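Incident log, structure service

09:12 report received: a user says their structure output differs between two submissions of the same chain.
09:20 pulled the input from the user's history:
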Amino acid sequence: MKKIALFLAFVMMLCTSGQVFAHYHHNEYSHNKKPCSQIQNQGGFKGNSDVSNMTVAKAKTLKDDTYVSLKGNILSKTGDEKYLFQDKTGTIEIEIDDDNWRGVEVGPNDTVIIEGEVDKDWNKVSIDVNSIKLAK
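09:34 re-ran on a clean worker, output below:
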């Protein structure tokens, strides 16, 4: 029971450390601090996703684990969490984990932007997709 109490105290200290230290550093840290409950909901970079230079053909030549962003269409489902993706330069197999769809529903006629990493095996190249969104 003492270990649980110590752990909870430690977590609470981490959540409030910015506010505690801000008092000792003349509010140096307090101006942008948010409660720990809001940290999970923070977003990331919002800007132009330049996918104009990246193509399926180019992605196939990149090293394993290279980050890519591609614009095109998902033509069909080829297996469990596996799909065939196409842009103007060719097709490539992509893998989208069920939890990475985040409510997006698409068909073969919908243009999408996928972001993920190149996955190179011995004899094939695919894209492990981290996010998908409808193109505007």
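09:41 both user submissions now match this output. Likely a transient worker issue. Closing.
09:42 reviewer note: The longest helix spans residues 2-24. The first strand starts at residue 67 and ends at 79.
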